[in-house]
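Project standup — Tuesday

K.O.: blocked on the structure for the chain from last sprint. Re-posting the sequence here as requested.
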Amino acid sequence: MIRLGRKSGALLLCAAVAGALVPGQVRAAAAPAPISWHPCEDDRSIQCGTFTVPIDWATGPQSGTVKIAVARAKATAPKERIGTLVVNPGGPGGSGTEFVLDGSGLSKQLRRHYDIVGLDPRGVGGSRPVRCAKVGKAPPAHPRNQADFAKLSAYQRKLYTACRTKTGLLYDFLDAGSVARDVDALRAALGEKKISYYGLSYGTWLGQRYAELFPGRVRSLVLDSTMDHSAPGTVRFSTDEARALEAGYAQFAKWCPTSKYCALRKMKKTNPVKLLDALMRRAERGTLHELDSPKERLAPPGLAQMVRTSMYNPLSWAGLSEELRELSRQKVRTIKRSAPDEPPDGAFIGILCADWSFPVRNYKDLAAVRAHTRRAAPHVRFNPLGWEAVTACIGRPRAAQDPQRPYRIIGTPPILVVNGVGDPVTAYPWARSVNRSIPGSALLTYKGAGHGAYGLSPCTRKAVDTYLLHGRTPGWGAHCPAVAPNFNDTRAQRRLDGARRLDGARRF
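H.V.: unblocked you, prediction finished:
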């Protein structure tokens, strides 16, 4: 969390923003005061501050207000400054201020010409983070029958109440539409007529929402590893997620026999796909244990989670190969005790369920989702993140404010969509769908695996930089070749470690 100190300036935006979705009908607040900046405690070369926005933009300040934390790294070449680049690292629940303080992973050229600005979205980090009262032990995240489903549903209802009670009215206004209005308040407070935006993963949905509400205030907009908010239905979302993880593992399986860093090469006649199949069967029978706990069973969800967390960056592949090798060497014995499920994250649920609708009425519906997902991804079986998203909203008493629907982004400059074909959580077909849905947008395809294409390839970095600096989008069919992991690249390893610090849960 960012420590903002006592001298943070405040900005009270008194004019309410219209709630309509049609571009051009949303007005900015009148005459906002500038932010009072001060050196951040964690890095005094970066500026920190706060500004104040209504909790409910439709009713204005009388509904209550919330201070939004913001950090700014000023352009290193002020005379060559282009403008402001607002960044969001996704999550949902990622801290934009920490993203800036950590260097944001952006090139020297971008940092030379842009003020890099990140805000903590409402309910996150320094922007009144979500708080939840205790609700007891969470039930299993993978119900086996209707009774288990009912327990999960009841728990989720209690969790909503616990978070709403502790957090207050703000918990009902964590949606991307509200945050997009906060971003436009930030734009006005900075004195900018237009802003550029780089959104990563879940941050791409915020970027799309901003472009939809405020098309005339966009200078340029990058959607890196793209969420598709037009994809309808629970089964579609879950199967897309599973196919994405399957595609990532397929690239790992292709790399493994070619690299001296793959521990599986030392095992005779070992195909990474067949090995995963065999380990999944053992996990189903209860004869695998956690690597760090011989007395706790490793079930299929835990094994799939192990795969998922290693697919975000190919630099994690060597470690995954060692883990799979160690699992294959375990003696076959029945392990009865299972590891407890991680308790749900109230902030993740509050944000996600404000913008996505995954109707699951009963155990029969959930079992059908699981069956479809298993067929879509026969080797990894399912994507734990997709499952978490679907089950997070079960039993929630408050419906999504802005569920999935067709896009209405009209009147922006060309938008750049970037995605890898082996991205494990934002499926490549989502990027293609978003590209088709936004008139004039361009799609840059990274042929490799990993999440966050900008940081995975010099080719993607160059294309994104060219777009943000000069406004030129890649041509139709533009792509960048896959980059094999270089385990001797200490700078790349530091970037990976930094990404893990920013998002330990490794979500969208």
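K.O.: great, moving the ticket to review. Residues 75 and 115 are 5 Å apart (CA to CA). DSSP finds 15 helices and twelve strands in the chain.
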